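Hey,
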Amino acid sequence: MKAAVVYASIYYRNTEKVARAIAEVLKADLYKAWEVDPNTLLRYDLIGFGSGIYFGKHHKSLFKLVDRFPRVEGKKAFVFSTSGIRKILIVHDFHRPLTKRLYKKGFIVVGEFSCRGFVDYALFKLIGGINKSRPSEEDLENARKFALKLKNFVTEIKSM
């Protein structure tokens, strides 16, 4: 299985740490969202898209990249993120805007991963930030476990 992990990690490399942990398990190629072309990514069986969460959704560079893809029937993808607050379905499912965009392009989203990351913008700056030690080694181990489950799942599907 050929895998790629595409990410945008802007301030503290929180998401880059998670992207590298996932890529290590998948033996995936790593790309920054603004440095890769959709045609390059079409060669992969599985593509991960991740960033920090900015005002409730992924970084704009991921949306711009996804918009440049042609229709891709059944291409497998996964979504990941780091954020200051926990992802809670319905209340603030910040993966939803990106997964919806991927579905519209024909991707099948086969998994999602999220963990906390250090944040010190806006009001959080006044208190020195939150989640100072995140992503932690435990978070990165959870990212690796997620990647292993993905790898096994996609490999199983391919062998059917």
